Amino acid sequence: MSWLTNALSSTLGRKLLMAATGLFLITFLVVHLAGNLQLLSDDGGESFNVYAKFMTTNTFIKTTSYLLYATFLIHIIWAILLSVNNRSARPVGYKVSAASTNSTWSSRNMGFLGTIVFIFLVIHLANFWWKMKFGEMPMVEYDGAEYKDLYTVVSTAFGELWLVILYVVAMIGLMFHLFHGFQSAFQTLGLNHPKYNPAIKIIGSIIAIVIPALFASIPILMYLN
User: What residues form the membrane-spanning segments (predicted)?
Assistant: First the structure.
């Protein structure tokens, strides 16, 4: 296993792991978004509550969720290690830098953007995931079966303007994070090619805009309604 340890301790190994976990988390965002959009269904929250119960009781989904938690931790820890390594490699900045012309703003501020997303993630988990797992939840009944009424918890939370604003700001941060992260992941994994790079750039831009925009629309529309 020494080869694995050496690979993960190297800068290239950490970048490869960051890229792989980042692409996996993007896949999770798509699935999570599909479920959360049910919050906007005009059925009093039934479809969302049924979805939430399925996601928390299905054996395969529960097993996959542990992989997801591990992926989040690995992505965050490796991002910190890469940032520390980059700073230690260049403790004193250049007097004159052409970074602004050679790279995008998002690529130069991935650490800052990641921190915004991380803070949002902690608040998001505390407000919903923790309450769903360990807190007292209102119950509702559909077709003789009881469900935790997570819809009411979410709609009550999104009645708070400060929380809606926080979600929108976090999704803006996520958008910029994805703009650079998606394309960078393909380059790091060696999957880029002059023939396919334009398509990767277009798909990455669509993902970076559409996913955060739809996530942000949920608290906005629930607050307005």
Answer: 16-35, 66-85, 110-130, 150-179, 200-224
Cβ atoms within 10 Å, residue 204: 20
* Contacts within 8 Å (CB) and 24+ apart, 185-194: 185/18, 185/19, 185/20, 185/22, 185/23, 186/19, 188/15, 188/16, 188/18, 188/19, 189/16, 189/19, 189/20
Domain boundary assignment for the chain: 15-85+102-224
CA–CA distance, 143 with 112 (Å, rounded to integer): 47
Angle, CA 207 vertex, CA 155 and CA 182 arms, to 5°: 120
Does the model's pTM come out above 0.85?
A: no
> Distance between CA atoms of 32 and 55, rounded to whole angstroms?
10
Q: Does domain 15-85+102-224 have CATH number 1.10.1900.20?
A: no
Strands, E, within the chain: which ranges?
Answer: 139-142, 145-148
